[in-house]
Amino acid sequence: MASAAEQLASNINFSAFSKATELKNRIWFTLGALVIYRLGTYIPIPGIDPQILTEIFQRNSGGILGMFDMFSGGALGRMTIFALNIMPYISASIIVQLLTAVSPTLEALKKEGESGRKKLNQYTRFGTVALAAVQAYGIAVGLEGLHGGTGTAVLDPGMFFRLVTVITLTGGTVFLMWLGEQITARGVGNGISLIIFCGIVARLPSGIAQLLELGRTGAISSVTIIFFMVMAVAVIAIIVFMERAQRRILVQYPKRQQGNKMYGGEASHLPLKLNTSGVIPPIFASSLLLLPATLASFNANPNGTGILAEISAYLAHGKPLYMALYIALIVFFSFFYTAIVFNPVETADNLKKYGGFIPGYRPGKATSDYLDYVLTRLTVVGSIYLAAVCILPEYLVSQYSVPFYFGGTSLLIVVSVTMDTVAQIHSHLLAHQYEGLIKKAKLRGGRR
After folding, report:
1. I want to staple 75 with a disulfide (CB 3.0 to 4.6 A). Which of 10, 82, 212, 393 is the partner?
2. Percent of the chain, pLDDT > 90?
3. pTM for the full model?
4. What number of CA atoms fall less than 13 Å from residue 416's CA on the CB side?
């Protein structure tokens, strides 16, 4: 069976894609949805001065606003209806997962199967609306307090402006949440991930143009630019290798006899990814470290003095304290999030329930201890990999003023989403070829 699947996979070509009508419809639907998303990133919310807002965001592009603006594809910098992007949904999902790990009621819902999953998704949607409304109100109040060189960012501040901003930004986030679910159901790939991917990729051309402009003006030498390009390719290759890496634990099922026949006895594998936490640790670590710098940039003191200014100076890009805390936070969140998404005790109980066991380890506590031991060692290696991928670009950004889009977090998201989407397209093509073989076999059987 495995050899047949490998042979089918090797025979997938463009002609197979041209015959897969359903896959083409899914791809066109995905592209159309992403085009709608990109159009929405250029529709501004009412009541703001775009020139003053652009000036303010250029001044604060090094803080957490710059990172969130990258994820939103520039929508936050232009303060459009999609300024919050899909980030409230991601935050709500993480909160629900955290609560599931500590709440027996939510944990019971998780074990109910499809019905429980739908209820948890509904709680996530409610949490998304609440978080989006709170963040939108904070943005509205913050916009009223922003001042540029020629005036304020808001043309007519007041409660009406805040209400309109909250409704607009919350509605934009809810629409993107719905759009992402539609892409997942009727398109190709994970819709939420593709929306973030689209926002990052949309900013890459301007980032490359900015890098080439630095080379043209002499700020960066041509040799340095070539080195950056080679390094980016090398980092992408490392990310692909590490994201595919996994530890496959052998699981054996006992034989049982029913009548004169023997059943069972099969062996399978439990795959444990090297990087179980994904891109969550770098995102959380960057958010926490960039928060003091962002607060200091909004400080009204023109001399840049005060405790916030001193903290932001020590936590600036490339500073030793920033690098050390960045690595420590990535390692911490790697272990923290891995403990949430994978429960060794629950996995061991499921294996015991279905009669599976790991050779050399008794079912139950011994199996869970072994899984925890293996997962801890994998997480150590995975956290070191995440820290290395994120720190190296961070150092280059601080030393050579490389555009922020070449950071490790953005490369991780782009490469991971690309791999997942390509894998789904490949599985659709493989299923289409299986269907074609089954139809041919039925026709031949009917002729006989």
Report:
1. 82
2. 12
3. 0.76
4. 22
